[in-house]
Amino acid sequence: MQYTSESVETLVEQFTKLPTIGKKTARRLANYVLKMPQEEVETIANAWPSVKADVHRGPRLYRVR
Predict the structure, then answer these.
(1) pLDDT tens, 5-16?
(2) How much is the pLDDT for 33?
(3) Strands in 1-65 per DSSP E
(4) Exposed, middle or buried, 25 (CB in 10 Å: 0-12/13-18/19+)?
(5) Cα separation of 61 and 2, whole Å?
(6) If 0-12 CB within 10 Å is exposed, 13-18 middle and 19+ buried, where does residue 7 land?
């Protein structure tokens, strides 16, 4: 199934890169994102780079850098 929006297709492709997320679940997540308020979408989007920059994954636990 092809969406008309290239940005939605890109989001679906990116979701499928997450563990245990197949194409069907990725489409559901993309549809959920489309229904979310803009502020919530921005909060989630900003959380990804923040956690990547601020948290270090050790052998068994996560630590703030």
Answers:
(1) 999 999 999 999
(2) 97
(3) 55-57, 62-64
(4) middle
(5) 40
(6) exposed
Assess contact for 47 and 55: CB atoms under 8 A.
Answer: no
For the whole model, what pTM was predicted? 0.77
Give the separation between CA 51 and CA 34, rounded to whole angstroms.
23
Residue type, 63: R
- Which tokens belong to 11? 């989001």
> Residue 19, Cα to own-chain centre: how many angstroms?
11
Residues of the chain with pLDDT below 50 are none
Question: N- to C-terminal Cα distance for the chain?
Answer: 42
